[in-house]
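check this one:
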Amino acid sequence: MFGLPGGEILDFIEAARKVGIEFILVRHEAVAAFMADAAGQIARKPAVCVSTLGPGAMNLTLGVANAYLDRSPLIAITAAMSTAAAPYATHQQLDLNAVFRPFTKQTITLDGVNTAATVRRAWRTTLEPRFGPVHLALPSDVARQPDRQAEDPAMVTLTPDAPPAPSGEI
């Protein structure tokens, strides 16, 4: 996981560290996304880039757009304004889903319900033909709360369905 941390994403980075996910610190968010782009191309599985909200998320867009054009499997995770503060905040308040939508296969704001299953679907989406990036926005207060499970994440496969067999008809 490549990134440049900010206060709103630190809980997520610490949770990733606790489960053994290595965090590689970079000096600019665009570098994180370009590194994840290259790692995804080489490994042929999604690499992850991380940023804070506002300008950090905007900086990440350069490499994520490049991954879209290169058809690289990538998951971009950005901090988002806390759900409690969002209706009142004006500082660094951006519609990140609208920003990332033109150059990702999917963009989702996590809400603390079925997060594991949602992330597994995002992983699978990056690998479905044609490879490409997925964006996940993580509100800072959602990152601190326990997840509410209504779905068994193990039931969501990480690999896309195999393509249909050729019919032999012309």
